[in-house]
Amino acid sequence: MNAIYQRHVDLPHFMEGVKKRNPHQPEFVQAVQEVAEDIFEFIDDKEEYHEAQILRRIAEPDRVVSFRVCWEDDNGSIRVQRGWRVQNNNAIGPYKGGIRFHAGLNESVLKFLAFEQTFKNALTGLPMGGGKGGSNFNPKGKSVREIMRFCQSFMTELYRHIGADVDVPAGDIGVGAREIGFMFGQYKRITNEFTGVLTGKGLEYGGSMIRPEATGYGAVYFLENMLQHKGEGIEGKRAVISGSGNVATHAAEKIVQLGGKVLTLSDSGGFIHDPDGITQDKIDWIKAHKTRRRGRISDYADEFKGATFHEGETPWRVECDVALPCATQNELLGEDAKALIANGCIAVAEGANMPTDLDGVHAFKEAKIMFAPGKAANAGGVAVSGLEMSQNSERRAWKEDQLQSMLREIMDGIHERCLTYGDRRDGHVDYVKGANIAGFKKVADAMLAFGMV
Ligand code: GLU
Q1: Is residue 353 in contact with ligand 1, taking CB distance under 6 Å?
Q2: How far does the centroid of ligand 1 lie from the alpha carbon of residue 46, in Å?
Q3: Active site residue: 132, 201, 237, 441, which one?
Q4: Ligand 1 within 6 A of 382 CB?
Q5: Ligand 1 center to 439 CA (angstroms)
Q6: How would you class 270 by CB atoms within 10 Å of its CB: exposed for 0-12, middle for 13-18, buried for 19 or more?
């Protein structure tokens, strides 16, 4: 007897269903739509994906765990936060993805991040599924002891849901090596196990060389790959970058190393424009200012002559050749994309996750400029996390130059995979399409192998 199944109808109907099942979750719906736009075309003549309802299943997280996190602030007051872990898909490996601490965090944002992570991790070629977690805890203005107490309390619940072969969290916005240290310490204390349950650890206790640099460096390697595919390079290019955290500062560093000129960086207060270029010395100053002194980017304009601060604005109207949005989701809107195109920008590589909204993505696609979505361009971070997992399993630490060349190789591999599915006949590469299809295919084919689970 022939199985009776329903084909995925069409994109608008499919998206209607996603919206209905995920009310008030615009970021998640947006991320699904960006992928579904390309996948519908790809699976049109592939009945096995329809029969197994792969797209429908991939757009439903395996599970969403939500929990209460109590902690005591320095005044002795009890504070209550919400914590989450979204385990999206483990078809090709243990769930893997960062932890974000941000006041505005919610389930929609985490579901979109876990969904994106699934394709990103598949693109790296390493065996990692997709997950994401975090809390609406706001680290701004908190003392180190408050952050430690919060991390310990957060892990006291999270530990039961994770494990080196189950789910391996790492850092993200608001979570760096310090927070990972506090969480790893608490995990070890509760379980009495020393395993590679978190990545982004300190070098003394199982961390990997170049993990902090990997996302920003990787994004620039990807940008370089796109430019080289068109016979161009980074040298002499003017770059506009948003953000001033781990991803943005390391992207800036790599642009400078490769002979480009970085004109801007930003934070939630606005952006700084330095027409002389943000050199390595200035990047070092920003790193220290933002992390150790927990300062604002606006102070840069007082420190360095010729630079200006633009309060409440994003940097997308500054004339440039290449742009790297490295701050957060939906920071580059349709109008910004049009301004970049009008100003002659030829390539955009997303260092953040989904920084460009759907209008922006469509504008870049239409203008046929080189546009690398985050799931391809910023995969270097999680890729080195994957290498950290391998080193932990092996109980060895690889050398820096080995890891540097592995990161390079992985970014080259992602670029190749994007070309396979995104190379159009007229020579223009649709990297969004290439990344979506290559990531989807790997996860989908693994799911097919498992049957209906
Ligand atoms: N949070 C990073 C990302 O968005 C890294 C995740 C990881 O290393 O697991 O990919």
Answers
A1: yes
A2: 32
A3: 132
A4: yes
A5: 16
A6: middle
Which residues in 295-313 are b (16+ Cβ under 10 Å) and which e?
bbbbbbbeebeebebbeee
> Band of the pLDDT at 174, cuts 50, 70, 90?
very high
97 close to ligand 1 (CB < 6 Angstrom) = yes
CA distance 151 to 351: 26
SS3 100: strand
Measure the CA–CA gap between 180 and 332, rounded to whole angstroms: 29
Both structure tokens of 237: 């290019």
1: confidence class by pLDDT, cuts 50, 70, 90: very low
Of all protein residues, the one whose alpha carbon is nearest to atom 5 of ligand 1 is 382
Question: By percentage, how much of the chain surpasses pLDDT 90?
Answer: 95
Tokens for 409, please give them.
């190789």
Delineate the domains of the chain, giving CATH numbers in brackets.
1-60+429-453 (1.10.285.10), 63-196 (3.40.50.10860), 213-368 (3.40.50.720)
What is the number of the ligand 1 atom nearest to the C-alpha of 113? 4
Does 167 score more than 50 pLDDT?
Answer: yes
Is 132 known to be catalytic?
A: yes
- Specify the amino acid at residue 187: Y
pLDDT tens by residue, 320-337: 999 999 999 999 999 999
The three-class DSSP label of residue 241 is strand
Query: What are the φ and ψ backbone dihedral angles of 126, each rounded to 5 degrees?
Result: -95, 155
Asked whether the whole model's pTM tops 0.90, one would answer yes
Say if CB 89 and CB 57 are below 8 A apart: no
Contact present, 409 and 214 (Cβ < 8 Å) = no
pLDDT for 162 beyond 80: yes
- Report pLDDT digits (tens) over 351-397: 999 999 999 999 999 999 999 999 999 999 999 999 999 999 999 99
Task: Check: CB of residue 169 under 8 Å from CB of residue 133.
Answer: yes
Tokens of 202: 């300190």
Mean pLDDT within 412-436: 94
Distance 9 CA to ligand 1 centre (A): 33
Q: For a substitution probing ligand 1, which of 118, 382, 391 has the most ligand atoms within 8 Å of its CB?
A: 382
pLDDT at residue 3 in the model: 54
